[in-house]
Predict the structure.
Amino acid sequence: MSRTPRTVRISRPVTVTALAAGLLAGAAAPGPAAADGPVAVPNAAAAGQDRPEVRKAVQAFVDAGFAGIHVRVNDERGEWVDSAGVRKLGSAAKPPTDGLFRLGSSTKAFTATLVLQLVAEGRIGLDTPVADHLPQFGLDRRITVRMLLQHTSGVYNYTGELDSGGKPEPGLIMPGEDLVEKRLRSYRPEELVRFALSRPPRFEPGKRWGYSNTNYTLAQLLIEKVTGRSYAEQMKRGILRPLALRHTVPPSTRTGIPGPHSHGYYRYQDTTGQWKVVDVTRQNPTYLGAAGGMISSSEDLHTFFSALNSGRLLPPGLLAEMRKPHPGSGALSYGLGMSVQDLGPGCGTVFHHNGSALAGYGSIMYSTPDGKKTLTGSITMGDAAIDPSQAFPKLQENLLKEVFCGGRTTS
């Protein structure tokens, strides 16, 4: 699909790296489709569920050039959902508020939870060498389970890196036509790990912090080795069945989204220099796997993240470990598959893990420490020439302000 992109106030080219960077930066910055508008919740009318300021913050994403967005808020006033933009380019239908979407790196919170459940069961230690369980890769024996979840292993990121000068270094799939051509290909986790290990490590284990999807691909293999089950089966046993998550799909070779959904798009320059926009709704989740290949709904994300933060999935000591940020992670304040953010006086602290898929999709997932207030949802890219790394942080700061601070500033 090729079309002329509409013009908005931001005009940088968008790549998969930009979408990922935008969502990460934003994380650190203060059946049939559902009805198009906010869904009525029993006994919610008297509680003032209209929330016009939150709706305005949602609409701002579309005004900035994103194709569509839907969000779900659960708090003391009940449940509120809304969507804005379009479900598909060329259609007037809004994104379905019961729709499924690609989680991207929000998957990491699920993966880290599975690993910590095995720690709680005494089947693995947080500070034991990963090489004891995965000897086939010849990993540095200083790399521990904790370092995988914390992003302090130093292992090269198979989806790409930035060199010391800030210049992009290619991953196994490069932005542009390479991404378009390879997005349906299947990858084995061992293949992804061996590609990463063919590159020099970024730093000595434990000496620094550096976000790397390879860490969570290794975590996937670790889960499978320790349990003797597939990652998908362990996900069902540890999280999906206990929480009755019926719309959450572990990574597989299935390229479609099994349920109502919005379409995601990817804008890139081809080899002739022409700008093109491609529908990338169909993707093979195996490229991101346990690092970002899951599909879910905003309702299931609420259920999961509320349960995790209220202590239903992990014992208190391990939940505290998960929430403890590494000092080297800077403003992202990253712990073990979860980040922490102080929204300022009167707003409190939230925990989160946002995500972006290979292209086209982003997810948001926030919770208060007690799990009683959550913000979950999805964002889709369209044909606008925007750079999410620039657009997303301010938009999300405003949305957080309205949901968690009642309109008060987060700074």
